[in-house]
Structures are given as C-alpha cells and as structure tokens.
Design a protein that fits this description.
There is one protein chain. By secondary structure, this protein is mainly α. It has a single domain, classed as MFS general substrate transporter like domains (Growth Hormone, Chain: A). Helix 1 packs across helix 6. The relative contact order is 0.17.
C-alpha cells in the first residue's frame, strides 16, 4: 500500500510532465512506459527462480523494494528524458525483483482454500495506495500551483516507510521441500509445470496485449480538457473501483470456476475501451475508468491465484516469474503499439484496438471451457 502510494503520486502526473515539461510525443511515452513495465515483469522470472532455488523469498523482496525507494528522488531532479527513462527503468527492475518472490511468499503463507481471497486482499491494499497517491498528488498540485517536482519529493516519504515496514515487520514462513532440490529453469523442473499452468500463461499473455499502459488513460483525460491539477483523478477513480471490488471478486474466485470468472472479467475492459474510444468528455471518461477498474479487480488477483493453484510449491516463484516474463513482453508490444496508433491514427483507434484484443482473449477462454466440457463428457 505504501509503495503504491509513492509510485502513483509520481505516475499519475508523469505522462503530463513528460508532455508539457519535457516535450515528448505519445509514441515516446508508449515506448518508455512499455519498456519500464515490461522490464518489471521480465525481471520477475529471474527473482522467482532464485527464490525457489535458495528457498528464501524475503531477501529478494527487500532488494526490490529498496531499489524502488532509492530511485524516487530521481524524478524530482530530472531535467531530460534520459533521467526519466533511467529512473523508470531502475524502479521497474526493483518491482520485478520483488514481484514474484512476494507473490510466492503470499501463496506459501496462505491455505489453498483462501488463496483467491488472499490475493484479492493484497490487490485491494495495493490499490488503496494507488488511489491515495493520486489524491495526495492532486491536492498538492492545487496547493503548490502545479509544481510537479515538489510533489515528486513528497512521494519519497511513503516509499521509505514501505521499505522500513518490510525490513522489520514481515516474517517469512519456512519452505517445505518434499523432493530433491533441482535448478528451477531446467527440463526436469519445467516438466513439472502442468498443462493447466501453461494455459493460464497463454490466457494472461493475451489479456496483457489487450490492456496497454494506464498512461494512455491520463493522456485521454487531458484530451477531454480535464484541468492539470485534476489529472490524478483519473487513477483515483479507477483505483477506488479497483480497491472496492478486488477483495469480493477474489473471494468469489474461491467459489466459482476460475475460467468463467476470467472470461466475465474481460467484458468490462471491452466496455471501457468502447466508451473511451467514443469520447474523451467527462461522462464517457468516467464510465470507462469505472469499467477499467472492475476489469482489473476481476482479473489480476484471479490470475495470481490460478498460477498458485496450477504450480507446485517448490516451483511457485519460477511459475510466477515465467508468467510475468510473457506478460512483460506482451506489455512492451501493447504499449508501443498503442503509442504508434495514437500518433498515426488518433486516440480512438488505440482504444478500439484494445477492445478487439480483449474480444480475442474471451474467445480463447471460451474455447478452453468448451474443450474441458467435451473432455468431461
């Protein structure tokens, strides 16, 4: 919660800062955001493998949160795109290092019948930070007459608090090993990952292609004439919905077929894309943000629970890492493509393309559900 608060204080303003202060194009922002987010997801594969091999999760999580903490001041002193790119790149490396071990740590500490609720709760707390951060940013921008750099300095405080809480407050449960230890990235180890796991991997990757960086939501709001100080409201609205729905939808995932809920969870993304493609004016923007938040709440914790359920405990970190590697590549492609479509054909085409990819994701899931039913009969 604290780290998300810090990150979103910066990220809710960063696209506009890059456009209005540094003079970047939407294509450049798409590449920066795509590389940054893809880096985070790709690095997770290595941290997950290491956490499985050594049987420890916390030390990698501490390193990851530490890197994210120490890069926050760079945004406040940045004078050109190189500073921003470097800070985003290192910050996302930190996120990548901590991501898979943290998720595996949650899975290790949670009974199987409560994993959907546990990952939903984690997602809710993440998202509480993700709307408190933009709310603070918006208030400070009003008080300090749109001083981006002052807001970025304040964002350092919750990051330091997050690192402190992790370092001194989190205890790691012992990992139980029932079989001889093997290196996680090997043919023997990977053969232990079931076909169900690889299907979840494919579904999550397709869905990531449909959901590009949230920086484009912020740029769409600016197109609609939203005042600069109110721009963080974009992430506030989306994340309030996200936080409110993540835990109940996570708990619902423990009571109904995961594939069915995943397919249903993509429908709001299609609706969001269509509303945002239609218009950037406030009513359409607000509707799109609400639906985007519902989609995130329905799918992100669910996918984490599906990975945890389909991977053996000794390879859980690796399983999360491989999943995030595939998602990272898809995020890079999606965000870069979104930026090019935005500059070449207009913002509406970007969101229509997102809706088309989301529709293909639903068809992929429905095809799997149909095959499963045929196998049962």
């Amino acid at each position: 919660m604290l780290m998300d608060m810090s990150s979103e204080m910066i990220h809710s303003l960063l696209p506009i800062f890059m456009v209005s202060v540094l003079g970047l194009s939407a294509s450049a922002i798409g590449v920066i955001e795509g590389v940054a987010e893809a880096t985070a997801l790709i690095v997770k594969v290595f941290s997950g493998v290491i956490s499985d091999y050594v049987g420890k999760r916390k030390f990698l999580t501490v390193i990851g949160y530490g890197l994210a903490t120490f890069t926050k001041p760079v945004f406040a002193i940045a004078t050109n795109v190189t500073w921003i790119f470097s800070a985003r790149f290192i910050d996302r490396i930190g996120k990548g290092i901590r991501g898979a071990p943290r998720d595996a740590l949650i899975a290790d500490a949670t009974p199987p019948h409560l994993r959907g609720a546990a990952f939903g709760l984690r997602q809710s707390l993440d998202t509480v930070g993700a709307f408190i951060g933009p709310l603070l940013a918006m208030g400070l921008m009003m008080v300090w007459a749109n001083d981006f750099r002052a807001v970025f300095w304040i964002a350092v405080i919750p990051a330091v608090l997050a690192f402190t809480v992790l370092l001194f407050g989190v205890q790691e449960p012992p990992m139980i090993r029932n079989t001889k230890q093997i290196f996680p990235i090997s043919s023997i180890a990977l053969s232990q990952l079931s076909s169900q796991y690889w299907w979840v991997l494919a579904a999550g990757t397709m869905l990531t292609l449909a959901r590009f960086s949230e920086a484009f939501l912020i740029l769409r709001a600016q197109q609609g004439g939203l005042a600069l100080a109110w721009i963080p409201m974009v992430l506030i609205v989306m994340n309030v919905v996200y936080a409110s729905c993540a835990y109940p939808l996570g708990a619902l995932a423990d009571k109904m077929p995961h594939k069915t809920l995943l397919a249903l969870g993509i429908l709001p993304l299609i609706g969001a894309d269509l509303l945002l493609a239609h218009s950037a004016q406030l009513p359409w923007l607000a509707g799109g943000l609400v639906l985007w938040g519902i989609h995130m709440a329905a799918t992100q914790g669910l996918l984490a629970a599906m990975i945890a359920d389909t991977a053996p405990e000794s390879l859980r970190g690796t399983a999360f890492g491989i999943f995030n590697l595939a998602s990272g590549i898809a995020m890079l492609v999606a965000s870069a493509l979104a930026g090019v479509l935005w500059d070449q054909f207009g913002s509406s085409i970007t969101f229509y393309a997102g809706a088309a990819f989301a529709g293909l994701s639903i068809l992929f899931i429905l095809f799997r559900i149909r095959n499963s039913l045929i196998e049962l009969t």
